[in-house]
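Entry 14. Structure prediction run on the chain below.
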Amino acid sequence: MRLINREIVYKGKIFDVAEDTIEIEKGKVTKWDLVLHNGATAIVPITENNEIILVRQYRNAENGELLEIPAGKLEKGEDPYDCAMRELEEETGYRAGHMEKVCAMFSAVGFSDEKLHLYIATQLRLGQQDLDEDEYITLEKYPLSQAVNMIFEGTIQDSKTIVGIFAAQHFLNK
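Output returned:
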C-alpha cells in the first residue's frame, strides 16, 4: 500500500481533514479520510500523597463533563516536553519538579495522525493556572486505587486518561 495523493478537504482551528488516495494493490485505489493534527501531550500529575489530579471539563462529543488527565495540543514545532510542562501549569496551576515521558501513542490511528505524548509529573508545586478563554475546568484529586476503580465503574471513559492511570499505577509500583 502507498499514498498516491492527499487533498485537504477541510481546514479547522484544531485539525484539518484530508482525503487520501491510497493504492491498495497494483492498479487498485481507494479513498481514506484522515484527520491531521499537530499532536498533543497528556500529563498524569501525581501528588506527594500518590493522588492523581484530574480535570473535569465539558466535552461536546459526550455533551457533558468528563474526568481527564490534563492535556493540550502541540504548537507547530513545539517540543512535547515543553508542551507538557506548559499545559500542566495552565490547566491545573501546578508545576512539576520532575516530568518523565512514559510513551507516545496514536489517539485514534484508524482515522487520525494525532500522536499523543504521555508524561508522569511528580514533585508538584503550586504555580499559576491560566485557562484558555473557552476552558472551564475544575480540579479533582483521587487516590490511584480509586481512579483505577473509576475506570471499571465507567466514571472515567477518556482513553488517554485510562492509559495514563494504568501508566501511573505501573510507575508507582516500580
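Strands lie at 2-11, 16-25, 28-36, 40-45, 51-59, 64-68, 71-73, 94-106, 115-126, 137-143.
Filed with the rest of this week's runs.
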